[in-house]
Design goal:
1012 residues; alpha/beta; 6-stranded parallel beta sheet; 6-stranded mixed beta sheet; 38 helices; 23 strands; 45% helix; elongated
């Protein structure tokens, strides 16, 4: 067998690999009923096996018995070797491979325990995150069959590496030296090591006793030495052959040589190879197999999915090494190589997804045609799948991303991460998101779920606004306060919410107690707490479905690895640790889905072909994907060791691009902006543009797909800006009650009054917000109210100051900036009250009154009422900001104090008898830097030519109320936006301010006629 010429073929890049492979194998071996069934085809991965199975089904017609399909195991996918190579009755069994999660936990504990002298210890979640990279280094050493002792042999070659690389190197040597001993105690070996041993045993067995059936190794591109030896063995078998995908047999010899030397011995120095070239990994594989490119024959079989033959030389020219791109200028007609190729450049990635979905949907209009999106950008894949759902491609006709989604993005995983983040740091935003998650209380009676959501919505409203004390106690205190107030008013809903919240707080806080302690704990304890909380929230709901089962399996594997991993993890670090783990767990859709539309990642697209291939996301960093740096090995150390450089992944991505681009009909797409930021065209796109110029625009029925995507969600007809609103509700819809502050709002901005008082709309305050100006003002009013209720003594004042300083609702910014500013102003106000006791004395605070006047009920509340020696009242309003000007009072825009004086004079405030007001004052509780004082009193008096008296203020307020009531409350005048609309308000979106502001005032009659 050693003297026989190796049998190696390559299926040209323009051929559909799986279908061409099946056609050739069938022609060669389909003799008799069992001709194919007696054979064995070796494939790189489970995904490749599925593609070849589908190709056999397409080619079978009436049906056939397929060869046995065995998987060698893709290193990039961490796939195991198929059971076909793992005999259960072997006399010398190979130890089992260690579970990936358990190995990572063990490596994390190894990182914790071993630190080079003088280096900071790495513990907890940081050790767990670094363990992933350490595992990759160990696997790569196994793939390249480099003994750990090699790490010590190159110590002198390190040179002047940066300090952090020196530290990483010392730590890596320490860990790799200890890992084999630690692993041996488990009775397991590394999966990569086991893979090598299995392949070596098969190789030795076939060399000693060649199988009596045909063996085909197809689609394998991994150049690991163990695989290279197996492929060489298969190529030397009497009925064996190796079929490579897309080897460029037409590349000039000098270009092939320029890819770099292929070294079977990493100890031999040499030039750096061109690992970014799409043919480099194939050259490396052939070199390790000991086969020259000239010994590789071309696979003769074709398939209905093949692209034009001119595409292969075009791609060879496209990816010519930089030193040979001068051939581009001498290239003749490139049109045959670009037949069926078009391009689309979209404004942003949202439109790119819409355009791709349009092209895929259009394929369904032609019987039997198929379409596939190929992209490494998983976010783009998700967007396209969502866009296709608008045409009813859901359920059994869904179009799923076959590359899958990280477990952390699936509903059960997302709920677990949200729960972990909430447990680590109590936050009202996370609390509402957690309780409202679709899986919570969703596995029982639908009414139970609806009742639960009703309570969550009530809780959402309760928790909005600043001043909420963080934690369970703060939420409970706010709910109890509202429940007590509702009890006095006879409202049962708030009381029911209080009971519901007590159950929630008890159930969750008890389950999450290990997190509440705030001290590092064993990861198994924290994981168990999350498991208990998930069970309390969802019952069995989090563990059902394919994603739920994957999450359950993850918990089980972690439970079996109990005792391994970091000894202690801080609760605040555990969510990051959990997210890092779940993002490496890919959940692929179950069998089913659309039979003619597909979304493939780069690995899924290998060996597969559709009638229309859409290559999406051709922006730099998306395709080729951005490479993450290796935290353990510097690029120079990798070269010395003979490990693959990170750039080799770019070469693999280029090979994947070439394989998909070689289809019969191809559309390449990119977006000018991605994620809101400008995007740079992929290097593949730029090469295409430099070689072939502008490609034809992708069209649908003669229309550019970019234009169709841009207008897909735009309503038909020209969009006309809205006119300035003029709502005029009927008289019976207009209120007959108004507050003193409502009068000022009506005077300044009638539309805001209409929205707030008639439509009863108000802007929701944000969740988990810090203290704002409104809260500061309310807190100051409460301070002064409580102080006045305590007889305004100095002792009471100091007690209130102490309570203010200790208020748990104050965040760090408020304590640092607001508290030092407001305290002097409060002392100024107290000193002024004490100093004026002889002239007037505060008799009431936060006192309310009502007055029926002209058919309208007026109500108002005074912050403080003083009584002077002559019996008149002084009405005081506290302001923590700027007080209204006297001019605004004279113009009827600020009538609040005057209206309070009117109520006091005619109906009385609270228990006070009707008395005339003698003074109106705003007390500004803020420092005046110019005057150097901590507060200011602004007295409101009448405007000229009226006498400057309090009576004039009351009279002016009465006139303003009568005018506004007659026009808006008792009349038919529309509520148009006032001068306040020149500034931004809460109702800008409702009034569509940006559409009409600054366009001029339309003629009301013309507007009414147009509306009619």
């Amino acid at each position: 067998m050693a003297d026989a010429k190796p049998t190696v073929f390559s299926i040209p890049v323009q051929r559909a690999f799986a279908d061409a492979l099946v056609a050739g194998v069938t022609d060669r071996f389909a003799e008799g009923a069992l001709g194919l069934a007696e054979g064995l085809i070796l494939l790189p991965s489970n995904r490749a096996r599925s593609a070849v199975q589908a190709a056999f089904v397409r080619a079978s017609g009436a049906g056939l018995l397929m060869p046995r399909l065995a998987v060698i195991g893709d290193a990039d996918l961490d796939e195991s070797v198929a059971l076909a190579f793992d005999a259960i009755d072997d006399a010398d069994p190979i130890p089992p491979a260690i579970d990936a999660l358990r190995r990572r936990l063990m490596l994390a504990s190894l990182i914790e325990r071993h630190n080079p002298p003088g280096e900071d210890a790495i513990t907890g979640a940081a050790a767990f995150q670094l363990a992933e990279g350490l595992g990759r280094v160990i696997d790569q050493l196994h793939y390249e069959e480099l003994a750990p002792t090699r790490l010590g042999d190159i110590e002198a070659a390190l040179g002047d590496l940066a300090g952090h690389w020196q530290a990483s190197w010392q730590r890596l040597r320490l860990l790799v030296d200890h890992w084999p001993t630690m692993l041996a105690t488990t009775g397991h070996i590394d999966r990569a090591d086991r893979r090598n041993r299995l392949l070596a045993r098969v190789t030795a067995g076939w060399r000693a006793a060649p199988p009596g059936r045909f063996v085909v190794a197809a689609g394998v591109t991994t150049a690991a030495p163990a695989i290279a030896r197996l492929l060489r063995t298969v190529a030397d078998l009497p009925q064996g052959m190796v079929v490579l995908p897309g080897l460029d047999l037409g590349m000039a010899a000098e270009e092939w040589d320029a890819l770099g030397p292929v070294k079977s011995d990493p100890d031999q120095p040499g030039e750096r190879p061109l690992e970014t070239h799409p043919q480099y990994h194939l050259k490396l594989l052939l070199g390790r197999m000991g086969i020259a490119r000239g010994e590789v024959g071309e696979w003769a079989a074709a398939s209905p999915f093949d692209g034009p033959d001119a595409r292969a030389p075009f791609l060879s020219l496209l990816f010519a090494p930089a030193a040979y791109t001068a051939r581009w200028q001498a290239a003749e007609n490139l049109a045959p190589g670009l037949t069926g190729v078009s391009a689309a450049t979209f404004a942003d990635d949202g439109q790119e997804a819409q355009g791709i979905a349009l092209m895929m949907r259009r394929v369904l209009e032609e019987a039997g045609r198929t379409a596939a999106l190929v992209t490494p950008d998983r976010l783009l894949a998700e967007r396209v799948a969502a866009a296709l759902a608008r045409w009813g491609l859901e359920g059994d006709s869904r179009v799923d991303d076959s590359a899958g989604q990280p477990l952390g993005q699936m509903p059960p995983g997302a709920l677990l991460l949200l729960l972990a983040e909430f447990a680590a740091a109590f936050d009202s935003v996370r609390l509402i998101a957690l309780l409202g998650h679709p899986l919570v209380r969703a596995n029982g009676d639908a009414k139970v779920r609806l009742d639960w959501l009703d309570q969550v919505r009530r809780l959402d409203l309760v928790l909005r606004g600043p001043g909420l004390v963080p934690g369970w106690v703060g939420v409970t205190a706010r709910i109890d306060e509202i429940a007590a107030d509702s009890d006095r008013r006879g409202h049962g809903a708030a009381l029911a919410m209080a009971d519901w919240w007590a159950e929630v707080a008890t159930g969750l806080s008890r389950a999450l107690a290990p997190f509440a302690a705030g001290v590092p704990a064993p990861p198994s304890v924290l994981l168990g707490a999350l498991q208990d909380a998930l069970g309390w929230l969802t019952g069995d709901g989090a563990w059902t479905g394919h994603a739920g089962r994957a999450l359950s399996d993850l918990f089980d594997r972690w439970t079996l690895a109990k005792g391994d991993g970091p000894a202690l993890v801080a609760p605040a670090d555990f969510p990051a640790m959990l997210a890092d783990l779940m993002n490496n767990e890919s959940i692929r859709p179950p069998y089913g889905g659309h039979p003619r539309l597909f979304i493939w990642g780069l690995l899924e697209a290998r060996l597969q072909r559709a009638d229309l291939m859409i290559l999406g996301g051709l922006d730099e960093g998306r395709w080729p994907p951005q490479q993450s740096p290796d935290p353990w090995l510097a690029p120079g150390i990798r070269r010395i060791l003979g490990l693959a450089a990170p750039e080799r992944q770019q070469g693999m991505a280029a090979h994947d691009f070439a394989g998909a681009f070689a289809a019969r009909e191809v559309v390449v797409t990119r977006a000018l902006r991605s994620g809101g930021d400008p995007a740079v065209a992929s290097r593949f796109w730029l090469r295409l543009a430099a070689l072939a110029g502008d490609l034809p625009d992708a069209t649908l029925d003669g229309q550019p797909v970019t234009a169709l995507a841009a207008v897909l969600d735009v309503p038909e007809g020209a969009s006309q800006p809205a006119a300035k609103p003029r709502p005029a509700p009927p008289l019976n819809a207009r209120p007959d009650r108004i507050s003193v502050t409502g009068v000022d709002q009506l005077a300044r901005d009638p539309f805001a009054f209409y929205a707030a008082k008639i439509l009863r709309l108000n802007e929701l305050e944000p969740l988990s917000s810090g203290p704002d100006a409104k809260w500061f003002g309310t807190r100051v009013h409460k301070f002064l109210q409580d102080w006045q209720a305590a007889k305004m003594t100095e002792a009471a004042f100091e007690a209130e100051i102490a309570a203010l300083r200790a208020d748990p609702a104050l965040d760090s910014l408020a304590r640092a900036f607001w508290l030092p500013r407001i305290e002097p102003s409060l002392r100024w106000a107290a000193a002024r009250v004490w100093a004026s006791r002889e002239e007037r004395y505060p008799v009431a605070n936060e006192v309310s009154g009502t007055l029926l006047i002209g058919g309208i009920t007026l109500r108002g509340t005074a912050d403080r009422v003083d009584q002077a020696a002559d019996g008149t009242l002084a009405i005081v309003d506290y302001k923590t900001g700027a007080a209204p000007s006297a001019k605004s009072a004279g113009e009827g825009l600020n009538s609040q104090l005057g209206l309070l004086g009117l109520i006091a004079e005619e109906a009385g405030l609270g228990d006070l008898a009707p008395e005339p007001a003698g003074a109106f004052e705003y007390w500004e509780l803020k420092r005046d830097r110019k005057k150097g004082v901590d507060g200011t009193v602004k007295a409101i008096k009448g405007q000229k030519p009226k006498p400057p008296t309090a009576a004039a203020v009351v009279e002016r307020a009465r006139e303003a109320l009568a005018d506004l009531s007659a026009r808006f409350l008792l009349g038919q005048e529309p509520f148009v936006p006032g001068d306040a609309a020149k500034r931004y308000t809460d109702f800008d979106q409702l009034m569509r301010r940006d559409e009409w502001f600054g366009r001029g005032e339309p003629d009301p009659a013309a507007a009414d006629e147009a509306a009619a």
